[in-house]
């Protein structure tokens, strides 16, 4: 249900009032209980910004193909409003509860990113609540006086302010998605094929609307090619019950055709049901458990809450000790690697980290974004890996995460900041244009009420 302008303005008024109640000089934070971040931070009992009422869709304009959306609106809620009208955002991140503001100020990516970039690239304008307590309407640098804030906001993670309203472009879509799973035994050929698809937007003469991949083990790589279609030649598959999407990839590829069919809705959330493959850590993929696990609880946010509970109770660490396993290091990262260096990274990753499967998501930036330093027009592949690696007593020093940072830098890649980071200040500022970030922060948060990006990402404040 669309909330309309009046309800939105009332929610912004509550936000302003909550800011006024925070004592001068005190750090300003969101009063938000849920998050998709994997970056720990110091606990705080201080009052935060009231964002209640900022989680809706304000309006949808089907003629202009745009939507005005509140910053705390989840993509699940947004899709529920736009898909019945035949539209989706240009990029719909994999997890239902990622918010629009979170994806634009942090990380958001999916299979359309090889042609549409990242979520912030389809934003037309934003209202941003700054550290100075003001709501600023921002557009690109050529369209408004606050263009510097618009340009620097992506990857700022709330260090410059919080989006209260975003106007985004929408893409018309049909009812179904036809999938082809294609296996590659050689990482070099995989990279070459990704580059060709990104250049032509087709494979073997068939249009490609969505492109991602899965690396199961060395020499076993798959690209999943999605074509938007109104044709339903077979009954669409259902991966919210006993079947598991990621397991279907090698099974269907081995069957010969490699084809599958999903509804558009189920395609958008194909990874959310099992949090990619991470639900196996909770036993949710065991046939007996899966039979009794309700569909409504097969969701990434449910698994995320279970992870948070384990972090408090340390049940997993206790079980590992009982089994005699080495102490584990949490390795939860997304990195962007130039497509022609993908094979080098996967070879190194297999030898030094050894986590499988990993997700592969090609992307391209259409323009330069100061705090999200991808070279415009260059093909990258996002490599996502999420789990624990047994390393022994040195686990608290995060040796695998530090090695990943170093390797990504060596390969001229980029690391997202939604999880733990370990850079020294000089390196961090060089990678994320710290000088520009500081200038913009001084303008819109002159008293530094908001935690800086370095303090958030590295110092965990």
CATH architecture of the largest domain: 2-Layer Sandwich
Query: Tell me, what is the CATH class of the largest domain?
Result: Alpha Beta
Number of helices: 16
The major pleated sheet works out as: 8 strands, antiparallel
Residue windows where pLDDT falls under 50 for at least 5 positions? none
Gross geometry: globular
**Strand segment count:** 16
Q: How many angstroms separate the termini?
A: 36 Å
State the domain count.
3
State mean pLDDT (0 to 100 scale).
Answer: 92
- Main β-sheet, spatial strand arrangement: 12-7-11-10-14-15-13-16
Q: Roughly what fraction of the amino acids lie in strands?
A: 15-25%
Radius of gyration, CA atoms, in whole angstroms: 22 Å
State the helicity in percent bands. Answer: 25-40%
- Helix-and-strand structural type: alpha+beta
CATH topology of the largest domain: Uridine Diphospho-n-acetylenolpyruvylglucosamine Reductase, domain 3
Layout of secondary structure:
Blueprint: H1 4-20, E1 57-61, E2 66-70, H2 75-82, E3 87-89, H3 100-105, H4 113-116, E4 123-130, E5 135-138, H5 147-152, E6 161-172, E7 176-184, H6 187-200, E8 202-203, E9 206-207, E10 210-217, E11 220-229, H7 245-255, E12 259-263, H8 264-268, H9 287-292, H10 300-313, H11 315-323, E13 328-338, H12 342-352, E14 358-364, E15 379-390, H13 399-410, E16 414-415, H14 425-431, H15 434-444, H16 453-457
Antiparallel strand pairs: 1-2, 2-6, 3-6, 4-5, 4-6, 7-11, 7-12, 8-9, 10-11, 10-14, 13-15, 13-16, 14-15
Helix pairs in contact: 12-13
């Amino acid at each position: 249900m669309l909330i309309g302008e009046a309800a939105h303005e009332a929610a912004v008024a509550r936000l302003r009032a909550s800011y006024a109640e925070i004592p001068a000089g005190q750090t300003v934070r969101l009063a938000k209980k849920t998050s998709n971040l994997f970056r720990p931070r110091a606990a705080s009992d201080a009052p935060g910004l009231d964002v209640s009422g900022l989680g809706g869709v304000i309006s949808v304009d089907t003629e202009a193909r745009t939507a005005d959306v509140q910053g705390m609106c989840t993509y699940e809620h947004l899709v529920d409003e736009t898909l019945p009208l035949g539209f989706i955002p240009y990029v719909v991140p994999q997890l239902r509860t990622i918010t629009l503001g979170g994806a634009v100020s942090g990380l958001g990516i999916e299979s359309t990113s090889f042609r549409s970039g990242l979520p912030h690239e389809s934003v037309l304008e934003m209202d941003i609540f700054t550290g100075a307590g003001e709501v600023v309407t921002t557009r690109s640098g050529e369209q408004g006086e606050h263009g510097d804030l618009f340009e620097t906001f992506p990857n700022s993670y709330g260090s410059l302010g919080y989006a209260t309203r975003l106007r985004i472009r929408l893409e018309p879509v049909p009812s179904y998605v036809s999938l082809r799973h294609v296996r590659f035994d050689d990482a070099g050929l995989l990279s070459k094929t990704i580059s060709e698809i990104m250049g032509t937007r087709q494979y073997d003469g068939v249009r490609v609307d969505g492109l991602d991949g899965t690396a199961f083990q060395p020499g076993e790589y798959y690209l999943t090619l999605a074509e938007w279609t109104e044709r339903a030649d077979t009954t669409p598959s259902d991966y919210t019950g006993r079947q598991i999407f990621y397991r279907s990839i090698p099974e269907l590829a081995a069957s010969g055709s490699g084809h599958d069919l999903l509804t558009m809705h189920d395609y958008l959330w194909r990874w959310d049901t099992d949090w990619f493959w991470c639900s196996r850590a909770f036993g949710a993929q065991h046939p007996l458990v899966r039979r009794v696990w309700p569909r409504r609880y097969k969701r990434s946010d449910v698994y995320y809450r279970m992870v948070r509970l384990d972090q408090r109770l340390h049940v997993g660490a206790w079980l590992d000790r009982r089994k005699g396993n080495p102490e584990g290091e949490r390795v939860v990262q997304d990195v962007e690697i130039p497509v022609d260096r993908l094979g080098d990274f996967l070879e190194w990753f297999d030898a030094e980290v050894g986590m499988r499967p990993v997700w592969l998501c090609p992307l391209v930036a259409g323009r330069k974004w100061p705090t999200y330093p991808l070279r415009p027009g260059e093909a990258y592949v996002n490599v996502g890996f999420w789990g624990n690696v047994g390393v022994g007593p040195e686990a608290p020093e995060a040796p695998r995460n530090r090695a990943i940072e170093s390797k990504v830098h060596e390969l001229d890649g980029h690391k997202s900041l939604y999880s733990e980071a370990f850079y020294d200040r000089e390196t961090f500022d060089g990678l994320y244009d710290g000088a520009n970030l500081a200038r913009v922060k001084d303008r819109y948060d002159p008293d530094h009420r908001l935690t800086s990006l370095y303090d958030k990402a590295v110092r965990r404040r």
